[in-house]
Amino acid sequence: MRRPWVPEAPRMHVIVTEITDSDGAVGTGFSWTPTIGPQAVAALVEHDIAPFLIGREADAADVWEPLWRHLHEAGGGGLTTIAMAGSDLALWDLAARRRGTSVVELLGRRHQSLPTYGSGVNLHYSLDELAEQLQRWVDAGQPAVKIKVGSPQLQRDVERVRLAREILGEDRALMIDANQRWDLQTAEEAISALAEYRLEWIEEPLRADDTAGYAELSRRITRSGPGVPIAAGENLHTRYRFAELMAADGAQVLQPNIVRVGGITPFLQIAELVADSGRRLAPHLLPDLSAQLALTLPEPVWVEDVEDAGLYEVGFLTEPSPVRIQECRAAVAPAEGLGLAFAADA
Fold first, then answer.
1. Which residue in 13, 111, 146, 148 is the catalytic one?
2. Which of 123, 150, 217, 286 could serve as a FRET partner for 320 with CA atoms 20 to 30 Å apart?
3. Does the annotation count 72 as an active-site position?
4. Residue 284 appears among annotated catalytic residues
């Protein structure tokens, strides 16, 4: 990566899946993992997913649930759903290409463009480096920015969030992301200390699978009055986990990652659950993919734009994706399928 998210993880991985139907039409999808497990994902695709799918109807919505049940003994989510994303995306890509259209138009476009927010994986940045990144976003006109928190010392987080608010001014939204670094008590103390900087949300303050902890934290910060919405979901892997978190009232902003949940099919189901609950949806990462689906959702959502982390910028694509981010808005140019041309020698 041109801008590694952490020093010890300089690489990002994709596993490309191609599906050819009985008429010779080809669809292309991918699985994604920033650091851990690409070889395991590739093995699941080769040894378990491909043999199960061959001979079935090329319909993403029909095959997703039977495939998930087939893989369930290896885990209901995580590596299994990440691996499933490749075939699910390939089947949606194939369906759109057979009709000579894009996945956006196949699903039904509802927006021409959507606002982005500048996102940085920057907890290891010095104050000067953080200030430079924040200023780049301000100069670009970003209406919102997200930075990382979760330092060993709370005062360091306070200093960095204060700096962000000073550079952003009062009119731009500021999100913070703790990436599961806190326990319940630490999260409550941190949110209380940071709330004065007018936060749009606090993301993943606790371990992702601690549903009871999220419910208790939500009760505590509502009772004490900071009024900071909790965001979570990038590390939840099934619609069942999203439903459980919402039923516990553990988060007000839900953030499914399209690949981690298993592709477009489950993402659309999760988006419907979130809409029915009256909560906010904020798709996680991968704007080359998530912006396309965001344009098909009934309500407008933010598109997360992580600096220097697009699939083309990292080197996975032979040409830019159809997603165009200009003047801090994401739009999608005409293309067939998902419009992603993966490089064989990436």
1. 148
2. 123
3. no
4. yes
